[in-house]
Write a structure and sequence with these properties.
- By secondary structure, this protein is α+β, with helices and mostly antiparallel strands.
- The chain has three helices and twelve strands; from the N terminus they run ββαββααββββββββ.
- The protein has a seven-stranded antiparallel β-sheet, with helices on one face. Strands 3-6-11-8-9 form a five-stranded mixed β-sheet, with no helix packed on it.
- A hairpin with a 5-residue loop joins β1 and β2.
- It starts with a strand and ends in an 11-residue tail after the last strand.
């Protein structure tokens, strides 16, 4: 079981290291090489060609989809957060953010019940919470329950960064094509 550490923030935020006990993160990173990096500026929704992992016939992607849609993983995160995600639909996106990418501090869509990011590469500058930047280490990440007050963003990246974003969402999510 992954060890979660609750961080000091104005909301409930957990970090974790060594998420994947196998080499799955390395295989996803290798398979991601077929996709271009993209510079995000202002908000992620401005990206035209997002990489939703369930839409590709790639073994490592399928394995990620299977993992994050499993009752075991949903139960694990539900127990940490004190909120039940087991019946939620899942959204899994591979992010290939190029150097110079940035996002304004924002709160998530209310249909997202949780947000998680697992880094596949290291980055000295990464996600900010309450205006405070963090670093990214391969096979580590963060997780929070969305209550509508969790401000997070991205200061300008100094190097390319690859990560996986996982959200468990409720029935109000607008685009079911990005859900499993």
């Amino acid at each position: 079981m992954v060890k979660f550490v609750q961080k000091e923030a104005s909301f409930k935020l957990w970090t974790f290291t060594d998420y994947f006990v196998t080499d799955l993160h390395k295989r996803v990173l290798e398979d991601s090489e077929q996709f271009d990096f993209y510079k995000i500026q202002k908000d992620r929704t401005s990206r035209p060609n997002r990489i939703y992992m369930h839409q590709y016939d790639i073994d490592s992607f399928k394995e990620c989809v299977s993992l994050f849609t499993s009752k075991y993983v949903k139960t694990e995160f539900s127990e940490v957060a004190g909120q039940d995600f087991t019946d939620c639909r899942t959204r899994i996106e591979l992010c290939k953010d190029s150097a110079g990418s940035w996002l304004i501090e924002h709160t998530d869509d209310p249909a997202k019940l949780s947000s998680m990011q697992i880094f596949l590469t290291d980055s000295a500058v990464s996600t900010s919470f309450d205006g405070e930047s963090t670093i990214a280490k391969s096979n580590s990440g963060w997780f929070f329950v969305n209550t509508g007050v969790e401000k997070h963003g991205l200061p300008p990246l100094k190097a390319d960064r690859v990560s996986i974003i996982v959200n468990w969402v409720d029935a109000n999510w607008k685009d079911s094509s990005v859900l499993i």
